[in-house]
């Protein structure tokens, strides 16, 4: 599967991409062996993660260079707050964890590290720095979702999670994000961005965010 040219190149150069998308936590969702408590720990942390991630996409609206970029980024803010977080709220509610309990849970250090890294990429850099740090999250889950939809055990209890990220709405959002990235790169770095001095730095940001994703799965310990 492909979510655009830039992503394909950065992905190939991020040493931890497979450690992220094929993490034991992910394989545990696929075969159903992941303990429920581990999943719920992850989901509560992920709820807190998404709050700051929505702030980062809102910062992307501020850092955008034209109305099309603003529209694309504000759509992600909306999707995140009104759709993606609903999965977390509903799944946790079914396990007796309400939103107040989720909000009262201290953020884990690896969670703080990840979201604040992304926010700093945007605050200290420009739109491209921020997009490079945002992409592993969006596109990695797209890749995981569509692989698990094909490979997961039919009776895995994590079917809702898989369906959310494998579904046509989320996959369409991934294609839009990949296009947004390709257009943003072409607009600022031209048609041969690999020869820009910024290319390596942007790839490093992508690789660092990928590393932070690997750490995030570690939060799902029962
Ligand atoms: C640690 C972590 N990484 C990635 C995602 C997935 N995700 C976060 S924001 C976003 C884009 C808008 O839907 C997506 C897909 C997650 N939930 N948690």
Automatic annotation (TrEMBL):
Q: Which InterPro entries match?
A: Haem_Oase-like_multi-hlx, Thiaminase-2/PQQC, Thiaminase_II, Thiamine_Salvage_TenA
Q: Which family does it belong to?
A: Belongs to the TenA family.
Lineage of producing organism? Bacteria, Pseudomonadati, Pseudomonadota, Alphaproteobacteria, Rhodobacterales
The Gene Ontology terms for molecular function here are: thiaminase activity
What is the protein's known function?
A: Catalyzes an amino-pyrimidine hydrolysis reaction at the C5' of the pyrimidine moiety of thiamine compounds, a reaction that is part of a thiamine salvage pathway.
Please state what the protein is called: Aminopyrimidine aminohydrolase
Cross-referenced SUPFAM superfamilies, in alphabetical order? Answer: Heme oxygenase-like (SSF48613)
Q: Keywords in UniProt for this one?
A: Hydrolase, Thiamine biosynthesis
Report the residue ranges that make up the Thiaminase-2/PQQC domain in this protein: 14-217
Q: In which pathway does it act?
A: Cofactor biosynthesis; thiamine diphosphate biosynthesis
Task: Tell me which EC number(s) this protein carries.
Answer: 3.5.99.2
Answer whether the UniProt record assigns the keyword Transmembrane to this protein: no
Q: Give the first-level EC class, as a single word.
A: hydrolase
The reaction(s) annotated as catalysed by this protein in its Swiss-Prot or TrEMBL entry are: thiamine + H2O = 5-(2-hydroxyethyl)-4-methylthiazole + 4-amino-5-hydroxymethyl-2-methylpyrimidine + H(+); 4-amino-5-aminomethyl-2-methylpyrimidine + H2O = 4-amino-5-hydroxymethyl-2-methylpyrimidine + NH4(+)
């Amino acid at each position: 599967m492909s979510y655009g040219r830039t992503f394909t190149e950065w992905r190939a150069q991020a040493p931890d991409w497979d450690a992220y998308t094929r993490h034991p936590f992910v394989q545990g969702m696929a075969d159903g062996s992941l303990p429920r408590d581990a999943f719920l720990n992850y989901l509560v942390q992920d709820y807190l993660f998404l709050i700051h991630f929505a702030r980062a996409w809102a910062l992307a609206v501020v850092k955008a260079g034209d109305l099309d970029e603003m529209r694309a980024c504000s759509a992600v803010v909306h999707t995140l707050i009104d759709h993606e977080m609903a999965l977390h709220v509903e799944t946790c509610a079914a396990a007796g964890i309400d939103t107040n309990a989720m909000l009262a849970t201290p953020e884990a250090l690896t969670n703080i590290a990840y979201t604040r890294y992304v926010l700093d990429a945007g605050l200290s850099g420009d739109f491209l720095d921020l997009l490079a740090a945002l992409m592993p999250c969006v596109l990695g889950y797209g890749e995981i979702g569509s692989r698990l939809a094909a490979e997961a055990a039919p009776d895995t209890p994590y079917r809702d999670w898989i369906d959310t990220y494998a579904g046509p709405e989320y996959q369409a959002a991934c294609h839009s994000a990949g296009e947004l990235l390709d257009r943003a790169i072409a607009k600022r770095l031209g048609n041969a961005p690999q020869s820009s001095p910024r290319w390596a730095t942007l790839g490093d940001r992508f690789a660092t965010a990928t590393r932070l994703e690997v750490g995030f799965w570690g939060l799902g310990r029962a």
